[in-house]
Amino acid sequence: MASIIASLPPLLFVQGRKTLVGTPSKLLVSSLTERQNRVSVAVKATGENSESSTSLNITESVQNVWDKAEDRPALIGLGFAAIVALWASANLVSSIDRLPVIPSILEIIGVLFSSWFVYRYLLFKPDREELFKIINKTLSDILGQ
């Protein structure tokens, strides 16, 4: 069960206990206290089981890979190499960022690539489905499923 507690201004608050979205068992909102023109709200989502969560599936897959591994020192070495590569790439990016002209050029390239990516994969529904298929295929290839 997921829970969220937030402090909202009075204009965004729904008085009393009332269902906002979906069926009554999915999302319930109730007021807790009123202080200085602000209201605290507690939201609890119930219904779906958390076992269908993607993060849970990933952790199970990583545990399966760790349990099936015959050469655990090699896996530890790969993890260490990944951390070193992340550290080196962060230092490389920070040193490139110190150069006077290159950051603005890379920023323009980033904006252009982001625009192309949104147009290519996120703007239309068939393209989004294609992106989800690519991501799922890549994850299954990486995790060996």
Order of helices and strands: EEEEHHHH
| Tally of strands | 4
Placed side by side, the strands forming the largest sheet appear as: 1-4-3-2
Distance between the termini: 29 Å
Shape: extended
Main beta sheet: strand number and arrangement? 4 strands, antiparallel
Radius of gyration: 23 Å
How much of the residues is beta strand, in percent?
Answer: 15-25%
The percent range for helix content is 55-70%
- Unreliable segments of 5+ consecutive residues: 10-16, 18-35
Mean pLDDT: 74
Number of helices: 4
Structure description:
By secondary structure, this protein is α+β, with helices and mostly antiparallel strands. It has helices spanning 54-68, 72-97, 102-122, 125-143; strands at residues 2-8, 18-19, 27-35, 38-45. Strand 3 and strand 4 (38-45) form a beta hairpin. The protein is extended and about 50 Å long.
Structure summary:
56% of the residues lie in helices and 18% in strands. By secondary structure, it is α+β, with helices and mostly antiparallel strands.
Topology:
Blueprint: E1 2-8, E2 18-19, E3 27-35, E4 38-45, H1 54-68, H2 72-97, H3 102-122, H4 125-143
Antiparallel strand pairs: 1-4, 2-3, 3-4
Main attributes of the structure:
alpha+beta, 145 residues, 4 helices, single chain, 56% helix, 18% strand
